[in-house]
Structures are given as C-alpha cells and as structure tokens.
Write a structure and sequence with these properties.
- The complex is a heterodimer of chains A (456) and B (280).
- With 456 residues, chain A is mainly alpha-helical.
- Chain A has a domain of 147 residues.
- Helix content of chain A is 76%, strand content 0%.
- Chain A is built from 15 helices and no strands.
- Chain A is globular and about 70 Å long.
- Chain B has 280 residues and is an all-alpha fold.
- Chain B has 3 domains: 35 residues; 101 residues, Orthogonal Bundle (Cytochrome Bc1 Complex, Chain D, domain 2); 137 residues, Orthogonal Bundle (Cytochrome Bc1 Complex, Chain D, domain 2).
- Chain B has 12 helices and 4 strands, in the order ααββααααααααββαα.
- In chain B, the strands form 2 sheets. In chain B, strands 1-2 form a two-stranded antiparallel ribbon.
- In chain B, helix 9 crosses helix 10 and helix 10 packs across helix 12.
- Chain B starts with a helix and ends with a helix.
- The chains are: A mainly alpha (456), B mainly alpha (280).
- The interface between A and B is large, with 79 and 79 residues.
C-alpha cells in the first residue's frame, strides 16, 4: 500500500469475511430444510435462517464495498484519508448494527418485509453510517482536489444507494404500494447503483492489473454506466407485473429487462479486452481471476439467467418459484460477492505479511471450488424450478406434492452448496493465514499502473 | 466516441430512463386505488397486514409471488379456501399436513383469534387485487392421474406420499381432505380443487357458493335445504341434482359413481361435507 490510512480497509475486509462465513452457515442450514423434515422447526425455523442468510449477504457485501472504497480512494486521489478515526467508528457502529440485527432476527425481531427486515433503529444506524462514510470519502477527495472517473462512478453509486434507501424507511398503508417502493430500494440497488459500484471497482482493477490506458477504460466505463441505467431503471418494471399495477408495466418491463444483459455483456467484453490488450503483466494473477470471473459470472447469472425469465409471458409461469432463487444466487454472487473478493485479493498483499508471490494454490482452490459450487447450485435451483413450474402450474399438482417430486434437486443443491462452502472456507482461511502488516511502499513497482507519476 | 461524448451518453440515457420511470410512477398512483380496491382497506385489513409482517410470513410463503418459495403462494388462498378452513388451519397447521410425509411443516404460530380474523381479512383483500390474473390457472392434462395410478397398484393409497396419515382426533375438515384424496374411487380422479380446472367432473373450487346458488334456484329438484345438505346429497345420491353439461351426466343419470353411500360411513360423509363446504 502507498498510503498509511489504507490500512483501515483490512479491518473492513476482516469483518466482511466473518460475516460471509456466517452467511454461508445459515445458507446451508436453509438448504437442508428444503429436504426436511426439520428438527429445528421451533428453534430456528426456515423464515429465520432465510432472513439471516439474505441480511448477512447485504451487510457483508456492503462492508466489503466500504473497505474496498477506503482502499481505492487514497490511491486514486493520491492522498491519505480525511479521517481514519471516523472510519473506525463507522466500522464499529456498522458491526454493532449487523450483530444486533442478526441476534434480533433469531427472536423474530424484525419488520417481516422481505429484504428490508431491519427494525427502524437499525435502519437509522444504517443511514448514519452511510452518511459518515460518504462524508469521509467526500472530504478526502475534496482535500486532494483530484477525482478520477472510476472514483466518480464509485462515489456516485454509493451516494445513490444511500438516497434510494429512503423509500425503505417510509410506511405504506397499501400493500401493493409498499411493494412498489420496496423495489425502488432493492431493484435500483442491485440492478442500478450497485452495478455502478461494481463497474467502478472493475475499472480500477483492470487499470491496475492489466495496465491498459486509463483514458480508454474510463470512456467505456461511461458507456457501461449509461447502459446500466437506461435498461435498469425501467427494468424495475419486471418486479411489478403481478402485484396490482397498470398493465403497461408488462411490455415496458419485458423490453427494458431484455436490454439489461447489454451492460453486463459490455462489462465482460471490456474486462476480457483489457486483459488481452494489457501489456504489463501484474504478478497478482489470482486477483485477475476474480476480476474477470466476476465480469463473466455476472453476465451469466445476472444477465442471461435474468433474461431467461423476465419476459412477461414466461415470467407468468416462473414467477414465485425456485427459478427466481436460481437467478438471485448466481446474480448476487457473480456481480457483487466476486467483485468484493477481487478487491480483497488485490489489496491483500499490501495489507498483510504475505510473501510477494501472492498466488497461493489455496487461493486458486478457493476460486475454482466457489465458482463450480455456485454453478452447480444454480443448476440445482434451476432444474428444481423447472420441475416445480411443470408439476404445479401445468399439471395442477398441489405445492407440497410438487415439492416432494423434486427432492432430488434439493439433494444436488446441498451437495453443490457444500462444494461452494468449502471454497468459501478456504478463502477465509487464506485471508486470516497471514498477519496484518501495514508497510507503506513509496514506489509503484508492485503495480502495472505506475501511478503517482504524471497526471494521467 | 471520445470520453466527453460517452459521458454525455451516460447522463442522457440515465436522464431519459429516470424521467420516464418517475412519470409512469405518477400515473400508476392515479390507478392504484382502483386496481387494489383501496376503499376496502379497512383497519382490519391493515391489522392483518401487520400480522403478516409480525410473524415474518413472507420469509417462507410468497404473496404476489414475492417471498421465499419455501411454502405455497397465498395470493388467492382466500378465494380457494373458505374462512372455516383457514381458521382451523392457522390454529394448528400440524393437523393438516404431516412432516414425515410432506417433509415440511408450518410451525404453529400461536396466533390470537383476532389476529387470525384480521389476517384472513387481509388475505381476502389481497386475493381481490387486480394483478393480471396471476398465478396462472394450471393447464390440466392428466389431472388426478397420480392418485389414480397409486390406487390401481397393490399399494394402498394411504401409503402414497401424497396423502397425510390422519388420526381420528384430527379436525373433520382435515379428515375430509384426506378422504377426498383416498376414498375409493378417489375423488381427485375426476374433481380438481383448482378453479376453472374441469376434469371428468366439475372443479370443487367455489363449491360452497355454487351449492348455495343451486338450492336457491327454482330449477333445483333435490331435497336439500342448505349447503351442507346439498353436498351430502351430491355424494350419496349424485343423480338427485345434475350439474348442467354433457360431460357430467346423460339421460338424467350423473356420471359420478353412486357407490359412496355404501362405501363410506355416515361419519366419513360428514367429514367430506365439512371439507367441501370450505371450498369457497
């Protein structure tokens, strides 16, 4: 690392790792409940494990985003952070919020509103933390007087995430209206501003890892952001089809959702082209794996599998089945989990005492086990979902009867989830294997982008 | 395209989409009241929505197809099952499904009677929201074939995984549902519980309402005076009243087997009646 204050990123990453591990525990627990019977029916019922599983996902990914931003902004703006103290307070408050929320869910203390289960006090803490974070980053950039495009896109994404959380704080009498605005937070986060954050990290990593020209990368970054929002904003409509809204949301949702993979395809091509064109070889090939992997898995999971069931006449049959779980798992993993893991893998050699050859075989095992495990889980959910649609909605079999007929897919789900969990365990072990060590390196020899030279 | 042009593209594309989205949102607000019957959102409906949230129902079930896919979608449940069934179910779900056989069970929630009433009112409001007719009606091709096949083999139907074993102290409606799936010949061979799904016999969805309309109409020639009586009559003497339609009867005789009066005990018929009377 080049700036002393970048060391705060390590602690964010460490918290993210712990929460990631916990998320997988609750995920595995939920998966086994699909097979049943459930001996924990009255201790940890499915609704509790599922709530914790999804909430931990959101919290750890956001922790990773914040850590990665604290790593990236000093480098991009070429300055120390405005306040490391504020950053540590923010992490403490955030972790406290996360831990108490999870404990609360164990006792069913929550709003019971899917993905927005956080009780009001926790929601307020989330807003406060976001404001602390944006203030710290904003002041850092202001102090430096240098804002790069990658940074600008990233900060824009983070600021908009905070703004779009507001509809989640309001109360609606009408359940349909409440669903309508719930997606302003959830959809516009994951298919809008989080994409912007991902694109910002992706551009940063590609510039660093492949050494391609910053001007070219930043130009395409704008094109990708334009495509994300053009398709993503109106693509929100695909959540509206069946909840009691006017009919015109169907064709609009179908059309713009069909455009959504464009931005993801552009991102994958962009990553691949950067890798091909980059003249300078970066020693951290593991980070390159995660970076390119994220772009490709996002295109597959978020783009193509999303497209597979967002067309209204298809969605009519697949909506509310395990097909959605298929898409959700691979989309979240490819687009968000993997980009955070890429940022961590890239930053880690600078934050720990690991030897210069960072490409430990363990890291590659973690990568391939996770990718193949998640691919298998996607297939398990997908095939279970197809069976479910056929038995339940075409044959007219009852819900529980249909679920019994697709048990073999849940077995496959547990198997592939175990492979995935092994990959996660290896990644976490590899993370904590080396002691944190924060040496400031003055020159830029470890990077393909020979930064602080010149104003590029 | 240079960097400046690509930046303009990003801003303009985002702007156009955002303006269109906000515009459509404003327009949707002018239609929400009508599409969701907002005038029917009584304090009970709101209280029922709070019950729905309080017990975290959405993290197993789905409503409008949104939720956790671990348990059935409840968008139209209030139209498919009558209040009596829903009440009995919510008081103790374990009386209706078996964990060993179905592998999943809803934990008993210990809802108060008021909470149950409010939740049913809320689900009733949900079921009437104009949501483009989702979920889709199943296109039945083979109907109750699964159960018929099971009955045709040596294996008794009670061994089939589709049917929950019951004990005599269960709710009569649960016992009736069990009989519906296990009586000989099995009812599900000809009757579906899905609205609009006609097999050899009429769908049982909406049974209670139809029975009330039938006995009130001047064409009714049977002897029943109430809904329960009509259902009982239809089971034990199918030809007493013929459901209109060439698929169901010919020359004044119903196609339904008339063997149930002997095959079933008085008590079993009562249970079937109790179950079918809940089919709204």
């Amino acid at each position: 690392m080049r700036y002393k204050s970048q060391s705060v990123a390590y602690w964010y990453f460490a918290v993210a790792m712990v929460l990631f591990g916990l998320q997988i525990v609750f995920g595995l627990l939920s998966a086994t409940k699909y097979l049943g019977p459930d001996p924990l029916l009255y201790i940890l019922p499915f609704d509790v494990t599922k709530t914790i599983h999804t909430n931990l996902l959101i919290v750890w990914v956001l922790t990773g985003f914040m850590g990665a931003t604290y790593w990236m902004v000093p480098e991009e703006s070429r300055t120390e952070l405005y306040s490391t103290k504020l950053a540590y307070w923010q992490l403490g408050l955030w972790t406290l919020m996360g831990v108490t929320a999870v404990i609360g869910y164990l006792f069913r203390y929550g709003t019971g509103n899917k993905l927005l289960e956080q009780p009001l006090p926790h929601k307020i803490v989330i807003v406060v933390v976001m404001l602390m974070f944006l203030y710290n980053i904003g002041m850092t950039i202001r102090k430096a007087g240098r804002l790069t495009t990658t940074e600008g896109v990233l900060i824009g994404g983070l600021a908009l995430s905070a703004v779009l959380y507001i509809p989640a704080l309001l109360h609606y009498e009408n359940y349909t209206v409440s669903i309508f605005y719930r997606w302003w937070t959830i959809h516009l986060w994951v298919e809008g501003v989080w994409m912007m954050i991902m694109a910002g990290f992706l551009a940063y990593l590609l510039i660093r890892l492949s050494g391609v020209d910053r001007e070219v990368m930043e130009k395409w970054l704008y094109v990708i952001v334009g495509l994300v929002f053009f398709a993503g904003i109106l693509g929100t409509a695909h959540h509206y089809y069946w909840v009691g809204v006017p009919q015109y949301w169907l064709p609009i949702g179908g059309f713009f959702s069909a455009l959504e993979p464009l931005a993801l395809a552009a991102m994958a091509i962009y990553a691949y082209a950067a890798m091909r064109r980059g003249g300078v070889r970066h020693p951290n090939t593991l980070a390159l794996h995660w970076t390119i992997g994220s772009a490709i898995f996002a295109l597959f999971g978020a783009g193509l599998l999303g497209l597979a069931h967002t067309w209204p006449s298809v969605n009519k049959w697949t909506h509310g089945t395990l097909i959605t779980a298929m898409h959700a798992h691979s989309a979240f993993y490819g687009a968000y989990a993997m980009i955070v893991l890429a940022m961590i893998t890239y930053a880690l050699p600078g934050l720990t005492n690991r030897p210069p050859g960072q490409n430990s075989p363990l890291g590659f095992w973690a990568f391939w086990l996770q990718v193949s495990g998640m691919f298998g889980m996607t297939l398990a959910f997908g095939t279970a979902g197809i069976g479910q649609v056929y038995l339940e909605r075409i044959m007219g079999m009852g819900y529980l009867d249909a679920q019994l007929k697709i048990q073999v897919h849940f077995l496959m789900l547990i198997l592939t989830a175990t492979v995935f969990a092994t990959g996660v365990a290896l990644f976490i072990y590899d993370f904590f294997r080396h002691r944190p060590q924060f040496d400031v390196i003055a020159d830029g020899t470890v990077d393909a982008d020979p930064a602080p030279a010149g104003d590029r | 395209m240079n960097k400046r042009q690509s930046r303009i593209f990003a801003i303009v594309a985002t702007g156009i989409a955002a303006v269109a989205f906000v515009g459509l949102t404003l327009h949707s607000h002018t239609r929400f009241d009508e599409l969701t019957n907002a005038q029917d959102i009584t304090p009970e409906v709101t209280a029922g929505k709070d019950v729905w949230h309080k017990y975290n129902c959405i993290n197993c079930h789905t409503l409008f197809g949104e939720g956790a896919y671990y348990a059935p979608d409840l968008t139209k449940i209030a139209q498919h099952r009558g209040e009596a069934y829903l009440k009995a179910y919510m008081r103790d779900p374990s009386k209706f499904y078996d964990e060993q056989r179905h592998r999943r069970l809803m934990p008993t929630q210990n809802l108060s009677e008021v909470e149950i009433d409010n939740l049913i009112t809320f689900l009733d409001w949900v079921s009437k929201v104009d949501n483009q007719g989702w979920p889709p009606r199943p296109i039945m091709v083979t109907g109750g074939a699964v159960n018929v096949a099971a009955q045709g083999t040596d294996k008794a139907l009670t061994q089939s995984q589709d049917v929950r074993p019951v004990s005599p102290d269960n709710d009569p409606r649960a016992l009736g549902e069990h009989l519906f799936r296990s009586a000989t010949p099995v009812c599900t061979a000809c009757h579906s519980l899905q609205p609009g799904v006609q097999l050899a016999g009429p769908s049982m969805a909406g049974m209670a309402q139809r029975a009330a309309t039938t006995i009130a109409s001047p064409d009714y020639a049977g002897t029943a005076t109430d809904v329960e009586g009509y259902i009982r009559e239809s089971i034990v003497a199918p030809s007493a009243h013929l459901v209109p339609g060439d698929m169901f009867s010919a020359a004044g005789v119903s196609f339904m087997p008339n063997t149930y009066a002997e095959a079933l005990t008085e008590e079993q018929v009562d249970q079937l009646v109790a179950f079918l009377a809940t089919m709204k």
